[in-house]
Amino acid sequence: MRSNGSVERYTAVEIGDRDGWICGLCQDPVEQAYQHPDPRSPSIDHVRTIAAGGADTRGNVRLTHWGCNHERNASTPLEAVEEAEAQRAVLLRIPALQAFAESLKAEDMVRRSQAFHSPERYRAKLARRVERYEREGR
Ligand SMILES: [Zn+2]
């Protein structure tokens, strides 16, 4: 079923095969044998989120661990100072956040965002989720 050419039919297996069964966030292998809600189970992540106007198409999705996908929490890494400035401009317009926004430096925002989205951090967070899942089953 297509809608405005922005929706495609695809399967997790198809995307997994395309992506070599490597998680797009932590860069570790994803095994098909794990089932949701195991944090290691395969999951499809929208690179540009649907909420941010991303399309539900093969070109905008990647394979991830379910836990890594959940950890990403719909945020997208800032790649450039211009992106950080744009985000800061939005915060400056919110009275309650104005002082906070004025204290931000775009370069620091980019650096922190890149650190937040680093494979190492996702890997560490996934390990903690798996530990909890195996202990508590959730
Ligand atoms: Zn992962």
Give the structure's gist in a few sentences.
With 138 residues, the chain is mostly helical. The chain contains six helices and two strands.
Summarize this structure as a short list of keywords or feature phrases.
138 residues; mainly alpha; His-Me finger endonuclease fold; two-stranded antiparallel ribbon; 2 strands; 44% helix; 7% strand; globular; binds zinc ion; HNH_nuc; nucleic acid binding; zinc ion binding; HNH
By DSSP (H or I, 4+ residues per run), the number of helices equals 6
Q: What is the level 1 CATH name of the domain at 1-76?
A: Alpha Beta
The strands making up the biggest β-sheet line up spatially as 1-2
Strand percentage lies at 5-15%
| CATH topological fold name of the domain at 1-76 | His-Me finger endonuclease fold
Please write the string of helix (H) and strand (E) elements: HEEHHHHH
- Which class of secondary structure composition applies to the elements? mainly alpha
Compute the average pLDDT: 91
Rg computed from alpha carbons, rounded to a whole number of angstroms: 17 Å
Query: What's the end-to-end separation, in Å?
Result: 34 Å
Question: What's the shape?
Answer: globular
The strand count comes to 2
The largest β sheet comes out as:
2 strands, antiparallel
What does this structure look like?
The chain is globular. It is mainly alpha-helical and 138 residues long. Helix content is 44%, strand content 7%. Strands 1-2 form a two-stranded antiparallel sheet. It has a domain at 1-76: His-Me finger endonuclease fold (3-Layer(aba) Sandwich). It has 6 helices and 2 strands. Bound molecules: zinc ion. The site of zinc ion has 9 residues, from β2 and α6.
